[in-house]
Structures are given as C-alpha cells and as structure tokens.
Design a protein that fits this description.
Helix content: 55-70%
Distance between the termini: 24 Å
Shape: globular
Strand content: under 5%
Number of helices: 4
Structural class: mainly alpha
C-alpha cells in the first residue's frame, strides 16, 4: 500500500497509462482482453519510466514535463496510444478522464 502522496500519484499514473494502452490494443485488434506483446512491452516501459521519474513530486503528468525520459521510439508509440485512447476514455472510464483533465 502506498504511503506517500508521490507513490499514490505514481500508482494513479500507471493505472491511467495501462487503461489507455488497453483501449488502444483492444481497439486496434491486437488482442481481446489482454495485451499483445508489443503493448505489454510499452506498458512495462512506461511503468518503469513513471517509477524512476525524478519530478514526481512536482509535475502533473508526463505530457506536462519539460524533460522527456522516454526514448524517441517509445515516445512516438505512447503518443499514438494517447491520441487513439484519449477520446475513447470518456466511454471506458469517464471519472478517471475527468480527474486526469483536472490534474493536467
């Protein structure tokens, strides 16, 4: 169980990115229900980046950060995922989307 505000924020950010990757993966016919290998790798990579972020205390979300810690290839993949999943979040988890928009 996370005991600090920063840890709770990291968990929430991981939850959001996992949902977005799931929406993208399932919506593009990669798999039904679970992640394909490529999307699973992107999720693991994203979680590692979130976990190691030195700015977790002060930043809202990765998109608002001035330092891009994702490698160029993964950054482009996550942008594609977010462009696809962002509008669809309204139908999958509207409460999470609203919280994300307010914090962002």
């Amino acid at each position: 169980m996370p005991n600090s505000k920063t840890e709770q924020k990291k968990l929430k950010e991981k939850e959001i990115i996992s949902l977005m990757i799931s929406i993208y993966c399932n919506g593009n016919g990669h798999t039904k229900g679970d992640f394909c290998d490529s999307c699973r790798a992107l999720e693991k990579y994203s979680h590692r980046r979130i976990e190691r972020c030195p700015y977790s205390d002060t930043k809202t979300f990765c998109s608002a950060c001035k330092t891009h810690c994702f490698a160029p290839e993964e950054r482009e993949k996550i942008r594609t995922v977010m462009r696809y999943s962002g509008p669809r979040m309204l139908f999958h988890n509207p409460v999470m989307l609203l919280k994300h928009l307010i914090l962002g």
